[in-house]
């Protein structure tokens, strides 16, 4: 093959192999939405599923998405033993469903004789017949050699004869699958190098699994050895430990190895968004530490690092975050030196004079609070309030003078039938010269307290619009001091959202979970009022 | 170097580099617990932190854990420019804190001139002086060459001269750091090969980050090139995208590459447990698809796979799950779920007849509860109570007919001085024919409820001894349903201990955190009474 060939084709299997993941069950609508996202990224091949295997895949192929850049591929199996290709219902169904077909077959002699229980030659005939037959029905056929690397190690000649049978019968690609995911990068490199001496690399693909956490490295090793198609999934979704993660492979091939993967630089800036589309469909929190696209991928916490990053980002960033649609974050923490905290202030637009006394106090205050268990990483809104208060920029909007929460349970009989269940909160709040008192119920003490506080603030005309918008979307509790039973110090983090789609996170800490929750709630409401430019009525 | 040298040393940086992770803030108690877990696994070096950098690390080194197998290491920096090593307060503090010291320094010329703003030769002197000085104070000194790979690519000779300065001054190890995490495995291999031609590989270490999802592969490439120390963290914890994941590297080095990493086969079977200890400390759900140790790592979903796996596990498993303390999971059939639950019953010593109707109901009950959010993994005591109750083996000891918790806060003035703070719980409890009522205060609602309930049970002479012993040592809260604000379903897990040193964990689930906590508390007390062989007075 021509090693200078810099075009690597991408093949996405999120909708087929990704579907095998524990806990994943795509609907046809999910599949369509994900296919459209892959199309936006210009992935060459989108494997839609296995027609005939389940009702979802049938529904998807019956009404396939219109794709602008990508080609839809159907997955299936070579013909059954002892049956002609033209007479095989599986192959017939495949031909009807998509312009491109990828068929899986055996290349490990042990699997042929043990799992299929057939002659080795019959397996080669099944491969060749199926490829040759479908080649006359669809525009492109490829062959997935299941267990190729285990097969090669057990019987090199037979494994090679299986993929040669496919190639010689007209397969556009023969794809080498590390089905069990146990092969290491140097083995992959050596074996693919050998394969590419027999079949041009421009027709060789690689399909890896992450069982040793090497799926990305294995895919890159295969490309270095000459393979020119890479199969994988978004975010590494897939059975067991997942498939090779295309979200990591794409920028590495493009930005570090100089390959053309059919994705433009503009499309690459959508990488983070595309990764998040899959998480949304799965109702999962995106992985913070995901390579390239995670929230933490360009986050800087250590104090030493931060001052260096500000001087020159190349000191601690391997690529520019903007290239993959990500951005730099400066984090605040116990680790942080002063420069860290000051950088964070600048990021949120608080103008600070590093020499002022107020700033010095603020830095000490942050450090002390973090020692107490506050964690301002991921609770930027509470951090901003603290800073603006220290700078004298924050008005007080209301003052809670007292609250009381009552939580009651009564059971009726020996069978523990619960007959009374009640959570009630009372708050007294001062706004300006007015004192308000309100009471509300909830399905738990914090929910009741939240309801009672809002009830008051909604009666203040100037606050109403802002408060009405606040929606609490996540509530996390963490015990900080351990080994102390129910006396432990608790950290509550609340994430809120408004009608314009802004998200913000606030934090509260106390030995009392109700009080910790109240602190985080208070910050959440105050932050929204501040950001909405509402004038304080408290005076 | 002698390439046949099969001993690779492991260096864990969970407590130092792992601490840099967004959202991670270890307490000194966390650090001690994690160090003990690492010691159980026989990790050669445990980096405890950076003495002098923050109060937590100071507290940890002031009272270091007693280690049986591992050696504690302190992290620090080479001497400052323009100061003698013997006069550097950082070095002096390092020498006092641990028998082994690892110092970081620059090896990239650009960083020396730009970030430090000093002459290249002064940097070499800083390295050599610091190593030579500390070598006289502690038993072992190593050098972390920050940005080594970027430095090598920019100026090979200077990067090599930096590590040679450290080696020649007496560093036991020079550790090559891919600080930005952007180097690819083939580059690592080539560069480490070159380094090992100058410094014996038996003195060369590797420290990788996962910014391209290649940290594991990079570490393995360095070992293949001759490096004999691998630095990493548990579960790949660490700044940005994390450090190299020792949990993946250890079994690969041992089981696939034939290296001795100082971990015995028996210790290797603790790998999954050790991985989970870190997650527990971080109050994180373990990653299902983690290589080797994840719940999904040996889970089989596809119907085709499952029958093949049952015939011969080697068809779809790259190693035996038991070697790393994991197990095979068959996900498809209800039948598999059932035998799984039955196996768990047998594990805790509950003798079940699979054909009995009670068992059928129990299995359905467990499945329903797990669907509701109960997690009996890690809450074996609650699971056992459920099983024994279904089998008619569990007496009821008491019946709470009602409880009420009142939580109140009052503030005095505009400065938010808190003047009244009160958590009070009232319970009504029936034991046999007697009805008790009691009230207690606590520093939070759950603590008050716990106190009130104990107050009653301590008055029952037959229960007194057992109840007196119960100590709640951990209390964890996790929100299960997301995106639902303070209405979310909450899971509370309580860990208890008795005077004989037995530990047990119980679980409660509810939308109301007080009720979830009560359920877990009730189970904890019931379990202790049952295990103590106390006869029920409830009748």
Automatic annotation (TrEMBL), chains A, B:
Q: Which GO terms describe its molecular function?
A: (R)-citramalate synthase activity; 2-isopropylmalate synthase activity
Does the UniProt entry include the keyword Amino-acid biosynthesis? yes
Q: Which Gene3D superfamilies match?
A: 1.10.238.260, 3.30.160.270, Aldolase class I
Instruction: Set out the biological process GO terms recorded for this chain's protein.
Output: isoleucine biosynthetic process; L-leucine biosynthetic process
Pathway where it operates: Amino-acid biosynthesis; L-isoleucine biosynthesis; 2-oxobutanoate from pyruvate: step 1/3
Q: Which reaction does it catalyse?
A: pyruvate + acetyl-CoA + H2O = (3R)-citramalate + CoA + H(+)
Recite the UniProt keywords alphabetically. Amino-acid biosynthesis, Branched-chain amino acid biosynthesis, Isoleucine biosynthesis, Transferase
* SUPFAM superfamilies named in the record: 2-isopropylmalate synthase LeuA, allosteric (dimerisation) domain, Aldolase
What EC number(s) is this enzyme filed under? 2.3.3.21
Q: Which SMART domains match?
A: LeuA_dimer
Keyword Amino-acid biosynthesis attached: yes
Domain named Pyruvate carboxyltransferase: which ranges?
8-269
Pfam families xrefs = HCS_D2, HMGL-like, LeuA_dimer
Family to which the UniProt record says this protein belongs: Belongs to the alpha-IPM synthase/homocitrate synthase family.
Q: From the Swiss-Prot or TrEMBL record, give the protein name.
A: Citramalate synthase
């Amino acid at each position: 093959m021509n090693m200078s060939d810099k075009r690597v084709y991408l093949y996405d299997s999120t909708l087929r192999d990704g579907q095998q993941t524990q806990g994943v069950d795509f609907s046809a609508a999910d599949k369509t939405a994900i296919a459209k996202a892959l199309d936006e990224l210009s992935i060459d091949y989108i494997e839609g599923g296995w027609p005939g295997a389940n009702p979802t895949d049938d529904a998807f192929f019956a009404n396939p998405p219109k794709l602008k850049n990508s080609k839809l591929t159907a997955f299936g199996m070579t013909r059954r033993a002892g049956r002609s290709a033209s007479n095989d219902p599986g192959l017939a169904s495949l031909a009807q469903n998509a312009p491109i077909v990828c068929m899986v077959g055996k290349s490990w002699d042990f699997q042929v004789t043990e799992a299929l229980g057939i002659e080795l030659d019959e397996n080669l005939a099944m491969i060749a017949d199926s490829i040759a037959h479908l080649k006359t029905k669809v525009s492109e056929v490829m062959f997935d050699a299941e267990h190729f690397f285990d097969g090669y190690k057990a019987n090199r000649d037979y494994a090679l004869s299986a993929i040669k049978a496919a190639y010689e019968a007209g397969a556009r690609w023969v794809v080498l699958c590390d089905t069990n995911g146990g092969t290491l990068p140097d083995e992959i490199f050596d074996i693919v190098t050998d394969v590419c001496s027999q079949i041009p690399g421009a027709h060789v693909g690689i399909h890896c699994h992450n069982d040793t956490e090497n799926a990305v490295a294995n895919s890159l090793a295969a490309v270095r050895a000459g393979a020119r198609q890479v199969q994988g999934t978004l975010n590494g979704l897939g059975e067991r430990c997942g498939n090779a993660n295309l979200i990591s492979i794409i920028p590495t091939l493009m930005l570090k190895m100089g390959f053309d993967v059919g994705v433009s630089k503009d499309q690459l800036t959508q990488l983070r968004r595309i990764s998040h589309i899959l998480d949304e469909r799965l109702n999962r929190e995106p992985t913070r530490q995901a390579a390239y696209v995670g929230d933490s991928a360009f986050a800087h916490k250590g104090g030493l690092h931060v001052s260096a990053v500000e001087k020159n980002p190349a000191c601690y960033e391997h690529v520019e975050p903007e290239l993959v649609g990500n951005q730099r974050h400066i984090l605040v923490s116990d680790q942080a030196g002063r420069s860290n905290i000051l950088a964070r202030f600048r990021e949120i637009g608080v103008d600070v004079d590093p020499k002022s006394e107020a700033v010095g106090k603020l830095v000490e205050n942050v450090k002390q609070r973090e020692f107490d268990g506050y964690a301002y990483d991921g609770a930027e809104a509470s951090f901003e309030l603290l800073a603006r208060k220290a700078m004298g920029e924050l008005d007080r909007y209301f003052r809670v003078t007292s609250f009381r929460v009552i939580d009651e349970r009564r059971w009726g009989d020996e069978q523990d039938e619960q007959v009374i269940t009640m959570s009630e909160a009372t708050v007294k709040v001062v706004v300006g010269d007015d004192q308000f008192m309100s009471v509300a119920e909830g399905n738990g003490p914090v929910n009741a307290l939240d309801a009672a506080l809002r009830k008051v603030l909604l009666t203040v005309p100037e606050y109403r619009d802002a408060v009405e918008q606040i929606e609490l979307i996540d509530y996390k509790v963490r015990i900080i001091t351990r080994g102390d039973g129910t006396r432990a110090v608790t950290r509550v983090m609340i994430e809120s959202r408004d009608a314009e789609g802004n998200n913000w996170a606030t934090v509260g800490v106390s030995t009392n979970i109700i009080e910790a929750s109240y602190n985080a709630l208070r910050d959440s409401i105050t932050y929204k009022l501040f950001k909405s430019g509402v004038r304080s009525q408290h005076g």
